[in-house]
Amino acid sequence: MYRVCVSCVSCVSCIVCVSCMCCVSCMLSVIMYRVCVMYVLCVMYCMLCVMYVVCHHVSCVCHVCVVCHVLYVVCHVCCLSSCIVCFMYMCVSCLCRVHFVCRVRCVCHVGLVCVMYVVFVVMYALCVSCHVCVVCRVSCMCCVSCRSYVCHVCVVLCALCVLCALCVLCVLCVMCIVCVMCVVCHVCVVYVFCVSCALCVSCVLCFMYVLSVSCRSCVRCVCRVCFMNVLCVSCRSCVCHVCVVCVMYVLCVSCVSCSSVERKIYVELNDTVPCVRLLNATHQIGCQSSMSGDTGVLHVLESESDLDWILNTGPHPPYMVIMETAFFSRSVMLRMKNSSRVAGVAVIVSKTGLAENFSPHTTCPNQNTGVYSAKYGPELANCNMTMWNPLANGLSYEDFAFPVFALKDENQTQVIRKCYEDHNLRLNGSAPQYPLCAMQLFSHMHAVTDTVTCMRRTDLQNKFSINPEILCDALTDFNVWASTRPLNNSAKGHADNVSVVIAATRLDGRSFFWQEAPAAEGTVSGIVTLLAAVQALYPVVQLAPPPRNIFFTFFQGEAFDYIGSSKMVYDMERKKFVIDLNNVHSMLEIGQVGLRSGRELWMHSDPISRMNSSSVEEERFLRARQIPGLVLADHQTAFVNRYYESMYDDAENLKVSYPPNLSPEEKLVYETEAAKSLAEVATLVARSLYKHAGGDDSNLNNITADPKIVAQMLYGFVIQKNNSWFQSLLPPYLTKKGILSSGPPQFYIGLGPRTFGPVHSVTLFVQHIMANLTGTVTNLTETQCQKPDEISTENKDLYAYLWVSGSTAVNSSGPFCVRAPVRLSEAVSPAFERLEYGSQDYSTWTESRWKSIRARIFLVASRELEMLTLGVGVAVLLLSLLVTYFISSKAELLFSSARETPTTTY
Known about the structure:
- This protein has 906 residues and is α+β, with helices and mostly antiparallel strands.
- Among the domains are: 262-472 and 852-862, no CATH class; 476-721 and 821-828, Aminopeptidase (3-Layer(aba) Sandwich).
- The radius of gyration is 38 Å and the shape is elongated.
- Mean pLDDT is 74; it is low at 1-250 and 611-615.
């Protein structure tokens, strides 16, 4: 610690060593400091604490250095450096070492206490790194031990413990510090001396006496906050002596205590999935809570009488409704939407009582951006010819002003039910009594109205705000594509003498709840079929290539007005893709093919080519150019999928099941009936593509999809993505990042790499499976694999190079580099590239941002008891203020000591 004279130009009459507690001017000890106040001369040092005392002009400073024993001498000409032992700044010119001394005040060079200007509890100190005396300017400070820098604005100073001489770590800012007014050193766990009076401080909250530096007498000035004698060491004015660092410490301790109390009051619900807000060019859909969260008394919806209790007769509104999926219908949700007595809804995700059909999508998917509009022909607009999804209830496209959550954890569901039955259950039709079990849901969304409004507000903040806040983000990810003959990725526009047959499918799905989109029949069946077709077709086309190139593509964002396919067509039209529309000969799309009846499949074509009907991705190419195409599906008219775009379109809906007692590795290779069925479809697709590309019929029998590969893909996409096969396909760094978490992947497109950096997990899976099916193993090292352009024998324009983990088997060679004609292309709506947020031609879907998503339950008291508690608290506060004022005003009378009666000796 340091003692400095900052209030006057004369040396203090008595300096106390804060380490050995010896008075310098006292002659009773021979191990004391002697300071000459008129000359620059170090006379002696303390043998106990090895402390040096120097004087510069007429001000004194005590130097703590318990390691280095070099005698310091002051020099007027300073070439500043630092001691390699104690990391203190000193002068090294002319072989002399000095303390750094500010031109205005005598300060310690370590920057421990230095010159403290305590004005409204704000400390200022000398910056020891750049040697600038900081008064009002922003500068940095350096820890004398670890050399870490910290800004003095946060009022955290670097220091050493006086007793153990170790640089300590502050729990508040993760900097090596010890508070100069703090009670306990974090390292040696003993009391730290007060730097002003050299007394051991034992007060828990750092309420220490501050003495006058010049006369060492207690200043008769009382702080009106803590009623203690205090003095500012700079301006001599009365200030509160509780330092800011200690206040931060107290607040931290209080926060920890509050967290402990909070855990006793609230039960956090972790495994929940919210409904979030999405926006497009015209409106908003989804759900949100108020800014502080919505709270309501729990009530389980089990019958029509419960619904009437919630909406009409219940005495404790608003209610937080807990319901099974059987009651999660459009009619019930719209009745709640129109009532002010509902605070929110929590849906228990369970197959118990599941309806025979549930599709929250619309009856005519993507009707506003498809080719079949009023412009194309009124008889085809709005699915007038064919209602593709007649079972839809349209819940996903409603806007709810209250939060809606899905509860996935069975144990937490039981906790909620137990709380409801103990406190909220009606007995004989009577209302339950307080305390009642309540739930609070947080899902406040930042964006409102529509994409146009949201993006305009975001753009304004980016232009005029110092700390802009993004309100919403465009839905975006990547398409995956490959071809049987590699295409030059660096050459854009029309490819000479190239004719391609496009085989496409979608990569994404959605449901009412955010990122809860298993999409087994809606998406996975098409992905697996096309990948299996690639596996069956690729070896044959390498030996007997057909005249036309076969182009495989997986589109992202098709559930939201064809984001992926519209972007690819947009790039083709503007010569920004490896091919253009003139290179496209025809197109085949793989739709929902997992629930076919018997051996039936249906081919849907467009009026341009066959004068019939069509759907999905092909429509984007039809809008750009009259390209003949077909859509392969398991339905003739309406979807066979009863759970289209819902959270129940899972493995069970796709009829993927396994015998009992199989291990995960056995399930991975088990050929289910669904796998065999999709393998047959994939074989048909592969042969059709080969023949349509001009291949020889004699090679068709060699094209057969492997049911084992299909079984592995089905297991990974609908059962468990964390399996040995997926692990072998991905790079090692991705497997370590937790991308292979438990359960199946979710197919919601999300915000993708523009916001969070990494590519969506499903996109990565498809990319690396394609690389496995179409690529070849190389002898490149990991460094060469990342920079193949440095290898003369490799061609980065024709191939992508992927470093994969490889098999985990004992005889496996470990990670290796794969060369494959697999590429990623951006899947973002052209509307955002063109800044046309109100576009009617392209997708304008955005996702709102939010601060926090969480849910919790707790017991709530009656309103009367809450007001009574508040009133008592206010009364106690006012009474304590009155008592404090009375004691303060009578302090001289209450705390004055009685005068001693003189004794007379005769």
